[in-house]
Specification:
By secondary structure, this protein is of the alpha/beta class. It has helices spanning 12-25, 27-39, 56-64, 77-89, 129-138, 169-187, 198-204, 225-242, 248-257; strands at 46-50, 69-74, 96-100, 114-120, 140-156, 208-219, 274-284. It has a single domain, classed as Rossmann fold. The protein has a seven-stranded mixed beta sheet with strand order 3-2-1-4-5-7-6, sandwiched between helices. Helix 3 (56-64) links the parallel strand 1 and strand 2 (69-74). It starts with 11 loop residues before the first helix and ends with a strand.
């Protein structure tokens, strides 16, 4: 779940716990994905997490493949330090390494090609996604698998009618997110527009597309406190990043949702749930 940022200026002390909380909340979903890779016959010697962030998924990869060495790759050294600490706490530090640098060039520091390269929502933070996929493919061993997590469905957490404000707030938040995402993509260094047909792009990178599957996270109401805190952080992030694309009424509704003292806010309401899906595309390099 790596991200592109100006690494020297970014406040990782503030952001890292949020990234960890999100990945931990999605652990049941990631476990489904990795169980499927195991059932499909994956038995890697080297697993690379390209865009690892603080290493939550990196450690899940190590759990799923106990015979593998795992290398977490990210452009933010503070996040990699947290990944190493997590691996040490989980007793897997002896087969866990990190590699600092921006993708895809950082992969040149690998000692040998990967048998499984995981790219979890990191590719869309790279300007030229087509070129990056070709680079990822070039760092696979013969017979190696690229697992690309891109796409899925936006999270749903609230009923259509909140009891205040205009119904359909989350649909409008989705539209606002699309605006901020498009702007993020345009502003990336070397940004190249591309049709996001992932199977076709994987094929163009010289790989054989082996499947596309979506995996569901379904946490019904009432949510436990960690899930509730995740939803609150999600709405706070949307309010900060996409607020300019919302009207005054929707901004006021978000502010009310985020008020910890409001019975109708996400900290207190009993109908809060979490439903989302992530899509994973897999492809193999010819042996």
């Amino acid at each position: 779940m790596g991200h592109h940022h100006e690494h020297d200026d970014f406040d990782w002390a503030r952001m890292a716990p949020l990234l960890e909380a999100e990945a931990e909340q999605f652990t049941p979903l990631y476990t489904q994905v990795l169980d499927r890779l195991v059932r499909d016959g994956a038995d890697p010697g080297l697993v690379v997490d390209a865009g690892s962030g603080p290493g939550v998924v990196s450690c899940l990869l190590a759990d799923a493949f106990p015979g593998a060495r795992v290398v977490a790759v990210d452009g933010a050294e503070p996040l990699l330090a947290r990944a190493r600490d997590r691996a040490a706490r989980q007793g897997i530090g002896d087969r866990f390494g990190t590699l600092a640098g921006d993708l895809p060039g950082a992969l040149d520091g690998l000692e040998y090609p990967a048998d499984l390269l995981w790219a979890g929502r990191s590719l869309h933070h790279l300007g030229d996604q087509r070129a990056a996929l070709t680079a990822f493919a070039g760092h696979l061993a013969p017979g190696g698998t690229l697992a690309l997590l891109e796409g899925g469905l936006p999270a749903r957490c609230l009923p259509r009618d909140l009891g205040f404000g205009r119904p359909g707030l989350q649909a409008r938040l989705d539209a606002a997110h699309e605006e901020t995402f498009a702007r993020m993509r345009r502003d990336l260094p070397g940004s190249v527009a591309v049709t996001e047909d992932w199977p076709a792009l994987l094929t163009a990178a010289g790989l054989t597309h082996t499947g596309t599957r979506s995996f569901l996270l379904d946490l019904p109401a009432p949510l436990d406190e960690p899930a509730r805190a995740f939803v609150a952080a999600l709405f706070a992030r949307q309010r900060a990043m996409a607020g300019e694309f919302l009207d005054a009424g929707d901004r006021a509704a978000l502010d009310r949702l985020l008020d910890p003292d409001d019975e109708a806010g996400v900290h207190r309401r009993t109908d809060l749930f979490l439903l989302t899906a992530l899509t994973v595309h897999t492809a193999v390099r010819a042996g």
